[in-house]
Specification:
Tektins, Substrate Binding Domain Of Dnak, Chain:A, Domain 2, flagellum, mainly alpha, single chain, cell projection, 2 domains
Amino acid sequence: MELYGYPLKAKFNQPQPPPPKVLPATSTVAANKNHIPCHPESFNMLWMPNSYYKAAALNPTLAPLTENFPGLPPTKIVPFISERPNGVFTRHTLDDWHRSNMTNYKESEITRHNAERLRADLNRAIKDVYQQAKRTQGESTRNLGERVNDIEYWKSELCIELDAMIRETNSLADMQKRLERALADTEGPFQVAHKCLLNREKRMGIDLVNDDVEKQLVTEIKIIRSCRERLQQCLDTVNAQLMCNKEARQELEKDLADKQLGHHIDSKCYQLKNTSRDIHFFKGVERIDATVSVPETWARFTDNNIFRSQSARAASAKLRASTESLLMGTADEMWRQFSKVNDAFTSRITETANAKSKIQTHLAKTRQEIFQIETKIQVIQKTIKDKEAQLKVAQTRLDERTRRPNVELCRDAAQIRLVQEVNEINETLRNLHQCLRASEDMLQMLVRSKGVLEQDLVVKNNSLFIDQERCMGMRKSYPSTVQILGYV
């Protein structure tokens, strides 16, 4: 800071220099008599007196004394004061002194008046600022409170919708599990029907027919395949709906989490006061605009999330109803066809059992007849042997009688009877041999018939074993309607 002159106190603190040998002219003193010794810049310098003397320099070549002045030290500086003879220095007159005091009084009064006006203006300004700040802060607090209420409202709506979506998703997940179990349970009946067809291919002979059982089994396989396709399509739809529900639920949870965080922040802001501890200056924060929505788009966003969730819930409920109807329909359809196949099996088994019984009856009669024919053949054979012995006797008699000498060779009654006897025995033997051949032929036919009946009986036994033991044995383990519907 530069010094524009010496203050009065500083002036008298300097050692008094010796009187100069050359005094200034009288005209110079008279000229300086009416000069006002106040420097205009002294009123703006608080560390100096209000007025100071501006001395006339004896040496006009000297510059004003400053802190950076490189001249003589303060003890050797010559004061810029005009000197008078006899050591008397005249600075101001008494009028100047009174005029200076009046000026100072007037300036003090003006300054005090201005200070009072300034204090009054400051009080009004401070009061206005306080009221304006209080009003502005109250409006901000009220807006924050309304914002907190809005967030609480949408939070409650989101919570209600989220709970409903969770319940609907859980119900749809249970329906998905039922569908999966029902689809898995159809595999057993399908394999049973397929194995029944394969087992019935092992029937033999005439029993390998395209009967009603086989037709019903083919129909059952078609129905089960159709039901499986419909269940699989429904399961795919349920899986897609579950993904849609999951996405809607995630949007709701994300929105609810944002609402909770926003509610926490706005509640904290709502509770802040001028006496709160966690308040600080954040310079320039009012110039940062990080908002991404307005109240209309903010409310519309949550409303769209809720509407999307409600739409997904409605579609999910409708899908659950259709799935339940599909499960009931497929179960009833499969069960009715299962009953038809079982009825066809029962009817076919009854027919086969009746045929088997009749075959067994005919086989028993055939065996009895064979036994009787065999007995008759034995009797015929014994009779033939007996007749042959009788023939031998008659022929031996005739042969012996041929050896009679000469006239003894008489054609007497004995000769005639022996000849007749031989002819009768031969005729009888021919008849017996014909009967024997006929009996043996009949026996062969009976044996052949017996073989056919026995083979047919084996076929019927095989068919009964396949239908009754293998097929019906497997079909007894067919799942119940409850299992088909997927309740277990």
